[in-house]
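A quick aside before the break. I want you to see a complete sequence-to-structure record at least once, exactly as it would be stored in a machine-readable document. Don't worry about memorizing anything.
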Amino acid sequence: MRETRLIMGMPVEIDIVGSDVQVARDAAFDYLNRVDERFSLYKRGSEISRINCGELTLEAASPAMHEVFALAEKTEKETNGYFNIRRPDGLLDPSGIVKGWAIREAATLIRDAGHKHFFVNAGGDIATSGENAAGAPWAVGIRNPFVRNEVVKIIYPRGKGVATSGSYIRGSHIYNPHAPEDDLCDIVSITIVAPDVLEADRYATAAFAMGRDGIAFIEEQPGLEGYAIDINGTAILSSGFAAFTTL
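That is the input. The structure line, written in tokens, reads:
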């Protein structure tokens, strides 16, 4: 049974196949709620808000905050600076990596509870394992960024992580750190398939910030595949992406 709850300002879906799944599902939802309490920029008392307003130093922050900031620094180096958690207004915003990190940890909780077949989706960042209730591979739809309820491609991640970045739902919330004044208008969405959802999430954010160069960057990264849609509705695929579109 699939259950959806509103967390981090978005619907989060968790589907676990098998019996006695409620405890594991509740534990995963509870964990994601705690992440939101710590990392939400919209909650005055969150840890990241306290850091941004000077009430808390990063040195005195939690181990979780240190882990996320270390991942952000690693990603910034690996993407030639196209991933950067410091916004143009000076605030620190790790949301481009927190969601994938949190979903990966929630999936680990489910797996550690003994469940091998599950699906976790938070706003298009997806972790899968095993098969669905029908015994078939989990299927993920890539939305048409111009027609919200239309799916343009079905992919089968087969245990890989999936993440999509774009401007068609939340508007222009991603920027190019090398030219923050420029609008990112050439590409409207990019979907990344990676070994896990954290890898997919952190590279999707950076690749979107690269614009038309994003797919070429993904092509060079071992274990990553990408599917971008440009402003004209044309799909641009990495060379190995098609392997995830067939059963």
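Two observations worth writing down. The first strand starts at residue 2 and ends at 7. The beta strands are 2-7, 10-16, 118-122, 125-129, 140-144, 147-155, 161-166, 187-194, 225-230, 235-237. We'll return to this after the break.
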